[in-house]
Amino acid sequence: MARTTFSGPVRSIAGFEGEITGAVTATTVTATGAIAGLTLAATGTGGVKLAVRTLASLPAAAAGNAGTIYYVSGTSSGNTMVFSNGSANIDLVTGVAVIA
Description:
The chain is mainly β. The chain contains no helices and six strands. The strands form two sheets. The chain has a four-stranded mixed sheet, with no helix packed on it.
């Protein structure tokens, strides 16, 4: 397969092969290779491994974070999953907003 560098938006109806490096902006990314800088990694069982954040490093709730799930240590319920709805970070165990 030939190697090509693109400087603008690229679309493929057949997919891409090989490693993806650099910034990727997409609605959906399906990858079988490495994506440099991605903070999620597929596990061998098909799951997703989330990076652990401390409560202090949890991003503030904002519209741009809506739909984001974090694994956070140091909350009132211990280590927990936190979901951002865009206006609050909600502890999925307690249902209560998490404040950093």
